[in-house]
Amino acid sequence: MPTPSRPARLTDLKRAAILEAAIDEFRSAGYEATSMDRIAARAEVSKRTVYNHFPSKEVLFVEIMHQLWEASREGEELTYRADRPLRDQLLELVTLKLRLVNNEAFVSLARVAIAAAIHSPERAQDMVARMNEREEGLTVWLRAAAKDGRLKIADPVFAAHQLQGLVKTFAFWPQITLGQPALRPKERKRVAETAVDMFLAYYA
Fold it and tell me: What residues does the HTH tetR-type domain cover (predicted)?
């Protein structure tokens, strides 16, 4: 007789298999050509099982992007600390962003997402809306630092986009659109430090 915990473990295994299969399908076939049928076949589960976990392809794709972001953090603490220098904390946050850009799976899927957005702006808006349902750690951190009076920020979401823009100019868009290689450690350090220093010069 199965134990009460066995169904839960089986469900987790199937969910993981679906996510892995979806990543492979999106990367190899692109967003438009990928179907829930193909994902189910690659994951060796029924199509109904796929829909039980993810109600649509859009939801599944967004979940994958979040999974990759979470994996890039490797459990590092992102919580604002009042007793630590702002620069040190921001450098850690930016370093996490740079690590994500070095993730081959993330870069491949980002290309897929951009291609899908070009063909269907409506779908792109839906994806962005779903992504924004989970507020990023950087925005949360900036809000906490502003509340503590250490940063003069009226709009943390806007400020977070500004800081990320400084980084993505060198460590995202060239790799996504032009196929340039990921930045070397020395280059990543330079991008992170100059972006943080410029940001703090305005907001601190």
Answer: 12-72
